[in-house]
Structures are given as structure tokens and as C-alpha cells.
């Protein structure tokens, strides 16, 4: 399991996109579970197979399964 808390938040767009692509490759090569905290919904959709929205007190507000395969469009 790889835990990441806002790892790309302070990066410029070009570097962020490159690292997002590397995270996707890492996930497929290692078949690891990656738990990524982000406030960027586009990033979450691009990187994730499942998105969980948490509210106050870590209560689950909603969950989404992302069925599109990689590579995904950034649009």
C-alpha cells in the first residue's frame, strides 16, 4: 500500500501531468494499492479506479467506481 497526501499539489501543470502519468505506470507495474488524498477532482478521476468522498469526521459521503481504462483523457 502506498499512501500519498496531496503529493502533486504544489507543482506546475507540466510537472504535475508528467508525475500523474508516472503514478499510473507505477500502479500498473507494481499492482499496488495507492491511497491518494487530493482536492483536485480532475486529478482524482484521471488517476483512480475508485473515488471516496469524505466529510467531517472521516464519514463517507459518497463513492464512485471509475470504469474507464488507462490511458485516460485529461478532458
From TrEMBL:
Keyword Nucleotide-binding attached: yes
Question: At the top level of its lineage, which domain of life is listed?
Answer: Bacteria
Instruction: Name the membrane topology term.
Output: Peripheral membrane protein
SUPFAM superfamilies linked? P-loop containing nucleoside triphosphate hydrolases (SSF52540)
Subcellular localization(s) per the UniProt record? Cell membrane
Asked if the keyword Transmembrane belongs to this entry, the reply reads no
- Keywords, A to Z? ATP-binding, Cell membrane, Membrane, Nucleotide-binding, Transport
* Protein name as catalogued: ABC transporter ATP-binding protein
Q: Name one GO cellular component term.
A: plasma membrane
**Listed GO MF terms:** ATP binding
Amino acid at each position: 500500500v502506498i499512501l500519498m497526501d496531496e503529493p502533486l499539489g504544489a507543482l506546475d501543470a507540466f510537472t504535475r501531468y508528467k508525475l500523474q502519468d508516472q503514478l499510473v505506470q507505477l500502479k500498473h507495474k507494481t499492482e499496488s494499492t495507492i491511497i491518494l488524498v487530493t482536492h483536485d477532482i480532475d486529478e482524482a478521476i484521471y488517476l483512480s479506479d475508485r473515488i471516496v468522498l469524505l466529510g467531517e469526521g472521516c464519514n463517507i459521503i459518497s463513492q464512485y467506481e471509475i470504469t474507464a481504462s488507462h490511458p485516460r483523457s485529461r478532458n
